[in-house]
Design brief:
By secondary structure, this protein is α/β, with parallel strands linked by helices. The chain folds into 2 domains: about 130 residues, HAD superfamily/HAD-like (Rossmann fold, 3-Layer(aba) Sandwich), CATH 3.40.50; about 80 residues, Transcription Termination Factor Rho, Rna-binding Domain, Chain A, Domain 1. It has a 6-stranded parallel β-sheet with strand order 3-2-1-4-5-6, sandwiched between helices. Helix 8 links the parallel strand 4 and strand 5. The termini are close together.
């Protein structure tokens, strides 16, 4: 039987619109002020150093760093330091009650059921681990972090590369055939399948491209594969 289930967030456990219509605009509107006020904080300073390195602009001043980050946000670039800084901004929003993390009811019910079955549940998202934990700790239905065993982000590797899933399997000390990956994105599912993961594509939106993976319209339609 499956020993671990790895879950995507956008379009899988929660709506794409929450990320693009709530979280991203919230971070975009506050990014410049956040860096100006917290640029000397050690955690922020470390991410700004990473921005300089990734942008190949070692002498970039604060104003230029803000420009780079805003450009990356506009392009929806999956840059690790950007995701880390967004997570810091979202932390303030969650703690102030400006919003709660959207999680589909069917996802909550199945996560609770699988957890009771003894299956370890993990999140793999392009958002930082910090942002992932905040979303599930401050979800619409309360704190769901007790259901989750661990989290993976872009520090593990790009979600569309099979080597990233091999690293996850190695970290979990499991064969890919022991792991089920759920996502709405074909390129991610293809990469996971290339690492021998079982896969299910979540098709929650109309007119989505369908691949060669088992399909489910919600978590309650997911059938756990047998080896």
């Amino acid at each position: 039987m499956i020993h671990a289930i790895v879950l995507d967030i956008e379009g899988t456990t929660g709506s794409i619109s929450f990320v693009h219509e709530v979280l991203f605009p919230y971070a975009r509107a506050r990014l410049a002020d956040f860096i100006r006020h917290h640029g000397d904080d050690p955690a922020v300073r470390e991410q700004l150093r990473a921005v300089r390195e990734l942008a190949d602009e070692p002498d970039a001043q604060q104003s230029r760093l803000i420009e780079i980050l805003e450009e990356w946000m506009k392009a929806d670039r999956k840059a690790t330091p950007l995701k880390a800084l967004q997570g810091m901004i979202w932390e303030e929003g969650y703690r102030q009650g400006d919003f709660t993390g959207h999680v589909y009811p069917d996802a909550v019910a199945c996560m609770e059921f699988w957890h009771r079955m003894g299956i370890a549940l993990y999140i793999y998202s392009s958002g930082s681990v910090k942002a992932q934990k905040l979303l599930f700790a401050h979800s619409d239905v309360g704190d769901l972090t007790s259901l989750l065993t661990g989290y993976f982000d872009t520090t593990t590797g790009p979600k569309k590369e099979s080597e990233s899933y091999r690293r996850i399997a190695a970290h979990l000390a499991l064969s890919g055939r022991d792991i089920l990956f759920l996502s709405d994105t074909l390129a991610e599912l293809d990469a996971a399948a290339a690492a021998n993961f079982h896969t299910v594509q979540l098709v929650r939106e109309k007119d989505m491209a369908i691949g060669d993976h088992p399909v489910a319209t919600g978590f309650d339609a997911v059938r756990l594969p047998e080896k």
